[in-house]
Amino acid sequence: MKFVPGLLPRKTTDRHFLAAPLSATMNVVPALVDLRPQLLPASNQGETPKCAAYSMAGWLEFYNWKYKGIAAQIDPDPIYARAKVIDGEPTVRGTTLEAVLQAAQDLQLISPIDTSSIRQVSASGVQQALHRYGVVLAAFNITEGWTSATPNGWVAEGGVDLGGHAVLLCGYSIVDNPPWYGIQNSWGEQHGWRGFNRMTFPMFKRQFDYGLIWDFPERI
Q1: pLDDT for 54-113, tens place per residue?
Q2: Which of 20, 32, 108, 171 lies at a 20 to 30 A Cα distance from 201?
Q3: Which parts of the chain register pLDDT below 70?
Q4: pTM for this entry
């Protein structure tokens, strides 16, 4: 498959792009969190730069199924179109995690979020975030190894840098050998294990940029 970079650098000068870091205080977390059974089948962005919108759609599908009992795919195209208005870069391909999160609210796909509850997640806080909040919008700087994956989902190490890519973090394990982090990608069900991928802890640490989490009314 041909990879098209679709994640722009986050902004810090606009109200849509301000987020506090997740507390560094680490709660006790379980040895395994695997949310794949709570996610709908992975969609396929094709040769488009819409990875962030696809990841936001995946989050909404998780939310709708978990809290509303609705199992239906969400169209990422309106999310991407609105996010391009929000990010203020109409001629640049791709968008940001922050813009697609705001776009989902503007399109009334999710209730308005208290901006003070939005948190940036660093690598050290991912397990805490997955345990406490569920799936996490995530930004990676990926390499060519991502474009191939084994049938059980492992993405390959190495290769040239490809750029920014958004996915949905959906689990981790410290009981398996090797330990892993899991994602729902947006490259279709034939990529990896039904569209889900895994990577080792060292690979995750090298390529993970940041994630976003937030409170929403059904969780409070």
Answers
A1: 999 999 999 999 989 999 999 999 999 999 999 999 999 999 999 999 999 999 999 999
A2: 20
A3: 1, 12-18, 23-27, 217-220
A4: 0.93
173, 199 Cβ separation under 8 angstroms: no
109 contacts 134 by C-beta, under 8 angstroms: no
Backbone φ, ψ for residue 17 (5° rounding): -120, 15
**DSSP letter, residue 111:** P
Exposure pattern of 76-91 as b/e (b: 16+ CB <10 Å)? bebbbebbbebbebee
In a domain, 86, yes or no: yes
Give the number of domains in the chain: 1
Q: Which residues contact 74 (CB under 8 A, 6 or more apart)?
A: 57, 58, 60, 61, 64, 109
- How far apart CA 182 and CA 34 sit, in angstroms, is 8
